[in-house]
Amino acid sequence: SIREPLNRLLSAYRFWGVLHNPSTTKPPAKRWLKNMEARALADSKSPRGMGKGVGTGRDFIARVGMPNFATWKFSGGGLPVLSSIDDTPSEQWSGHFEVAVKTLSMFDLVIPMELLSKHPEPLGELLGWKDFSETHVVPSGKVVNNDAATELGDEETLQKMWAANKLDMVLYAWVKAVYLARINCKV
Questions:
Q1: Which of 8, 26, 110, 164 has a Cα-to-Cα distance from 69 of 20 to 30 A?
Q2: With the C-alpha atoms ordered 9, 134, 73, 57, is the resulting torsion angle positive or negative?
Q3: Rounded-to-integer distance, Cα 167 and Cα 164, Å
Q4: pTM (whole model) above 0.85
């Protein structure tokens, strides 16, 4: 499955930055996301960081809160980390993006989570599932459907976040198109 990238970042903030944050004072979303970017960058520079094969890496939470997490995850964890949300992905990322697309292409079904509740049909067709009474379950806390476009603030911030996450935005749009084609273009 794959989430809309900005909604995924907001969800990561709510889960790790608020719900599972032991601090009594919870940081605002923008500050928490900036902190996760810095932690992910530090982890990427560590000889024991995630994806280096010499340890588990101590900072999976930071990776979840960083831009282009889905592309990083589905490309085998080699995608370079942006040094700041003000940076934009560079040409060196194209190979990692291609690997992510090829990886997802190997699956019979990739689910854009925002469409699952309204369009669960492919799960029935491919997996034989019939009970869709619960399509959105969380391990702790309450189910909250995020709307990053309205909750994360001003247009400039959203544009910067979109630019910093453009690989995931394109990956998500592609997955969504394939999912909708599966539903609407049956042969």
A1: 26
A2: positive
A3: 8
A4: no
